[in-house]
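Exercise 7b. Backbone tokens:
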């Protein structure tokens, strides 16, 4: 889970949200603070569960859900999503000739 708040650039003014804009074009040079501009709250949550089909290859079925909410006084963007898939990881088993048995 994550929570953040920040200020969006509004009315074509540079309040600092876009790091690629020149700092010389900022609304003010001093006295800046987090959240200036259009205060926006951001929430993000994600959960996953999986079931191992084949432990040798770490082959698993996966089911997940995520929720993303970005809101301020102008808009409220909500993005719920359910995901599913099959996942595997190929592990390398190295042997240097020394047995641990």
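Sequence design result:
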């Amino acid at each position: 889970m994550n929570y953040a708040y920040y200020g969006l650039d509004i009315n074509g003014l540079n309040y600092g949200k876009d790091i690629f804009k020149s700092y010389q074009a900022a609304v003010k040079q001093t006295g800046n603070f987090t959240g200036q501009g259009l205060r926006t709250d951001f929430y993000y949550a994600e959960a996953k569960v999986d079931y191992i089909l084949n432990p040798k290859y770490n082959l698993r079925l996966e089911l997940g859900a995520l929720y993303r909410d970005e809101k301020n006084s102008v808009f409220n963007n909500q993005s719920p999503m359910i995901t599913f898939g099959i996942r595997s990881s190929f592990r390398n088993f190295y042997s240097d000739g020394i047995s641990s048995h």
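Instructor comment: The first strand starts at residue 2 and ends at 8. Residues 2-87 form one domain.
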